[in-house]
Design a protein that fits this description.
By secondary structure, the chain is α+β, with helices and mostly antiparallel strands. It has a domain at about 20-75. Helix content is about 45%, strand content about 10%. It contains three helices and three strands, in the order H-E-H-H-E-E. It has helices at about 10-25, 30-40, 45-65; strands at about 30, 70-75, 80. The chain has a three-stranded antiparallel beta sheet with strand order 1-3-2. A hairpin with a 3-residue loop joins strand 2 and strand 3 (about 80). Helix 1 (about 10-25) packs across helix 2 (about 30-40) and helix 1 (about 10-25) packs across helix 3. About 20% of the residues are buried.
Amino acid sequence: MCCNDSPATLTVTEFRLLEALVRDPGHVKTRTQLMEQAYPYDSYMSERTIDSYIKRMRQKFINMDPDFSGIETVYGLGYRYKLE
């Protein structure tokens, strides 16, 4: 789907967020759901932090494959991983 079979260099948090998204491709995950899955032991994390991580992940994938569009924003709801 992406990245010309090259490995992506993700932080632990980016990996956890990506894992949460790809577990249920096509299903929208709210920022709260993503926070709970990526930070299960953290008592406070801003929803805007999720947006920042998603933006950085997208940029990493786009740098590897300019046609990448696998992480979709669903305005007012959250994010989903879409299969192409």
